[in-house]
Amino acid sequence: MRRSQESGFREFAEARMGHLFRSACLLTSGDTHLAEDLVQETLGRMYVVWGRSSKIGNPAAYAQTVLVRVFLAHQRRRSAGERPSDEMPEASETAAQGDASLRLTFLDALRKLSAKDRAVVVLRYWEDWSVTETADVLNVSSAAVRTRSTRALARLGVQLGDSIGEFAAY
Amino acid sequence: MSGTQEDLDALEGGLGDAMRRIGENFSVEGRSLVDGGVVRGRRGLRRRRVAAVTGSVAALAVVGFGASYATAAFGDGSGQGGAGVAAQPKVQETGPATTSSPGKGPQLSAQQVIERLEGLLPEGKVSGQVGRGTADRRGPYAYLVFDDGKGKAAIGVSVGAIDPHGTEAKQQLECPDKSFVPYDSCQNETLAGGSRLMVMRGYEYPDKRVDTKWWHAYLVTPDGYMVDASEWNAPAEKDAAVSRAEPPLTVGQLKGLVTSDKWRPVMNALGKAAPEPVQQPPAQGQDGKAILSKLKSLLPASAKVASEHGDDGYASSWMTARARAWCRSTCSRTCPT
């Protein structure tokens, strides 16, 4: 990559890394170490295609798509060889901050969704993407996104229990 | 357990904002994400260059063995590459992303997919056609507005490859829990030949805030393909006024649409889906049935279960008011309100 291109890439990466990291933290339900790894992998893949960035209409959206696919690929590998941990990493760090209980409850609820359901929730509600855009990224039909979205919401509702009202107004 | 429709609506309405507030708590300060990304990117570029060089050397070696092999290595100009193991690697831009093998049939254009849908509709006018061909990585799709004289209605069909024994197929074929997703009817059946079908007459908005009806059929064939059809009683999925009392195709016609042999060439162009990874057994044997059974055993004898639903790691049971009162006094965080 030419120096000017690398400088352009760094500028893009600096501007987007915060958002990508926060998305990754939600996808991983608060596992900041894994989120960091996913973001680096995403930026690495963006670096490889950066020379062709003129062909990528919207690099920010493209990076978000890459992040979700990197996350799902990681989850597929993990489901084949590892057992998910019951403990949420860095819970104490998060708990030390205000409103910690509600945040922990939500991240814990998010963690109990399947990886694909979590991706649907993050894309639809955190990214505010449409059903069609979400379906395109996940390579599933719009109906599948709709079904997953509804079920994921229902499960989040169950997990949030009595906190649901408090959370909705959070 | 909470989860009335009102609660879920409130959750859906506030979820985006709440997630943004939660997300803001994760700070990138002190994390060398960009440097880490650049290092990985450079490594990726190096690998790519090595692969390209290796490819060129292999191609030259093939030329040494004779012209016929060289033709195969460099392709015949059609871009297919023949037996071109030596072709320079390139990013896969097309082809279904979810399939693990190439299709055995010829590729179909978006127009051909749309025409198949048109050919399966009863008499009427069609407009607003959009579609995707079988080579599109997002999968073939046809969408149009149909008017049989009773009002314009949107109809869409997508076809894809799926692991017929996987979780995705199982979930899509299940009728949803009516406590969460209201519908007028939902039936699933196994057809002669082994295909499994779910047909649901539901609503676009689960809270029915707009009376748009969404009728949906989902078919999974035993050889691993799915046909997914939707129709609405409005000319668009969302943001369009209801144009007729009901969607144009009856349940029987919707069933005929997804089970038609006309989709077979579309399926043949797609190849097979990669099998879903083997699922880990739920922790401590907590499959849906076991949790449901446990949940019901903990209810008081007077409780009447109105409906029940169990998935791995999760189960719900809707109970009568008396049982809910008992539950709240016993386990407040997980009771229905």
Topology:
The complex is a heterodimer of chains A (170) and B (337).
Chain A: H1 3-27, H2 32-49, H3 59-81, H4 91-95, H5 100-111, H6 115-126, H7 131-138, H8 142-160, H9 164-168
Helix pairs in contact in A: 1-2, 1-3, 2-3, 5-8, 6-8, 7-8
Chain B: H1 5-24, H2 33-65, H3 67-74, H4 110-119, E1 125-132, E2 141-147, E3 152-161, H5 167-173, E4 183-190, E5 196-203, E6 213-220, E7 225-232, H6 251-259, H7 264-268, H8 288-298, E8 305-311, E9 314-319, H9 321-330
Antiparallel strand pairs in B: 1-2, 2-3, 3-7, 4-5, 5-6, 6-7, 8-9
Helix pairs in contact in B: 2-3
Report what the structure shows.
The complex is a heterodimer of chains A (170) and B (337). Chain A has helices spanning 3-27, 32-49, 59-81, 91-95, 100-111, 115-126, 131-138, 142-160, 164-168. With 170 residues, chain A is mainly α. The relative contact order of chain A is 0.11. Residues 80-98 of chain A have low confidence and may be disordered. Chain B has 337 residues and is α+β, with helices and mostly antiparallel strands. Chain B has three domains: 33-74, no CATH class; 110-268; 283-334, no CATH class. Chain B is 34% helix and 21% strand. Chain B contains nine helices and nine strands. Chain B has helices at residues 5-24, 33-65, 67-74, 110-119, 167-173, 251-259, 264-268, 288-298, 321-330, and strands at 125-132, 141-147, 152-161, 183-190, 196-203, 213-220, 225-232, 305-311, 314-319. In chain B, the strands form two sheets. A seven-stranded antiparallel sheet of chain B has the order 1-2-3-7-6-5-4, sandwiched between helices. The radius of gyration of chain B is 26 Å and the shape is globular. The relative contact order of chain B is 0.11. Residues 53-98, 279-284 and 326-337 of chain B have low confidence and may be disordered. The chains are: A mainly alpha (170), B alpha+beta (337). Chains A and B meet through helix 1, helix 2, helix 3, helix 5 and helix 6 of A and helix 1, helix 2, strand 3 and helix 5 of B.
